[in-house]
């Protein structure tokens, strides 16, 4: 910065400031005691920050609407999900068939919402099972530490090296594809990531002073785990769960593509998209478009929601 | 360092052994003999076939024979196409899949890093938002959906590129684009966030104070450190690209290993499924190991011999 020759007209040296610019203010004891901002719990604060993230909120709203439609969508449609109507195959979207009909004349609108049920169910169940196993395994490894931790982490290291989708494919080839076997196959090695996160968190938090304080007041292990460790590890765990759902939905769609997806009479989005691959080349775009659109947007919604939660649940970002 | 490598090698061998054992258990637990569906075989022929493939031995012996064949890199014949062995298929298909994979990685890394740098340099500006919006979309759209869209729009509607097959560079553009978009998006996001972090570091301020041009700072000073996380996720990306080749090769009729693999799944050609799984798992596990080693060598802050967890 260059020094100017003349001080600007807003430039005063401390001695230049006239006394009458200052006025005396009485000390207000009450005002000093007032809390500047409302006291918020961790969750209220996180929620406030999440609401401010418009993209994440859009994702959340999309998901809520999707769930509502997957529950009530089939009810407002006059068509049966598997009713074939061959004379009406490949009808473009119209007032009768909002999303058109597919190669067997089935109503794509109805099938899309049934597909949503299957895909969301697979995603949520996978996340839930990963969560249950991961929190148990990672919690024990992190809390016990030492030798136990060492052995448990070696096992994880070995499992982590297994290529996820290849193992899933292998299991499904033998177990035979069905709703339950797909969920089992997705979670057999899927929980490892969650366990690693929980273990890392617990390992870090268990050495904090407030846990020590709890211990010195005589808290037993279950109480420490329940009251001190779990609430403080929840942030990264929730984020991980939000990101597990889309990857499970993707994996299911991918498996459908290999012919290892949900079998009829159920139809997931992946199955619908796979069935209509040939149709798109002959111009019947709607049979692929709707399931593909919903797979992509559901994954998008979960991804942005996960990103938003990551920021919202990080106490370091608290303003 | 040496201790770390030995430890990792041991874990690698155990992981491989689990995969091999898993495939064996699965193969044995499949009901019926693989020759049940052969037409025109009477019991004597079946017994002979089973004896030929050692299927009449007790499981323990079969298991060791299987281990031996895997170690000697012999995955046996295909059941559905008896004239071919799994090795034949791997020999023919793998080079093509490898080519597709390598090109994809190169494209994904270069475009992802470039996108990430631009987003970081124009932090909170339009370019940043556009790049990151593009990245989230890229992560969200499954590669097979993207592949079909590309074929329908660019190959069928506008006839810019060939629809399928693997003959010339023009044939490679669509499959590589479909396969590279996901990894590219992941790399772009990662590069952006580490780049933002690196750019606030003191040595960057120092470089700026020396009067270096912004681009020189980025290329010579910031990029080196910003790329480290990309190296760490390389293993995961490789796994994603590898499994991605299955569907991409199926859609684009690329005659790589993925196509054989998908066919073998549909035809329940168990030796091919098992052989390919073992081969690909070994490939991936070794790659992961190499990536880890490279990481230790590239980043002097990582001490590989350090004991204990994170």
TrEMBL record, chain A:
CDD domains: TM_PBP2. It is found in: Cell membrane. Keywords: Cell membrane, Membrane, Transmembrane, Transmembrane helix, Transport. SUPFAM superfamilies: MetI-like (SSF161098). Residues 116-306 form the ABC transmembrane type-1 domain. PROSITE patterns: ABC_TM1. GO terms for biological process: transmembrane transport. Its main location: membrane. It holds the Pfam family BPD_transp_1. It is a multi-pass membrane protein. The chain crosses the membrane at residues 55-76, 118-143, 155-175, 181-198, 243-266, 286-309. GO terms for cellular component: plasma membrane. Belongs to the binding-protein-dependent transport system permease family. This is ABC transporter permease. It comes from Virgibacillus salarius.
TrEMBL record, chain B:
Coiled coil: none annotated. SUPFAM superfamilies: MetI-like. Signal peptide: none annotated. It is a multi-pass membrane protein. The chain crosses the membrane at residues 9-30, 100-121, 133-152, 172-191, 226-248, 278-298. InterPro entries: BPD_transp_1_N (IPR045621), MetI-like (IPR000515), MetI-like_sf (IPR035906). One of its GO terms (biological process) is transmembrane transport. Belongs to the binding-protein-dependent transport system permease family. It is found in: Cell membrane. Its main location: membrane. Pfam families: BPD_transp_1, BPD_transp_1_N. Residues 94-295 form the ABC transmembrane type-1 domain. GO terms for cellular component: plasma membrane. The lineage of its organism: Bacteria, Bacillati, Bacillota, Bacilli, Bacillales. Gene3D superfamilies: MetI-like. This is ABC transporter permease.
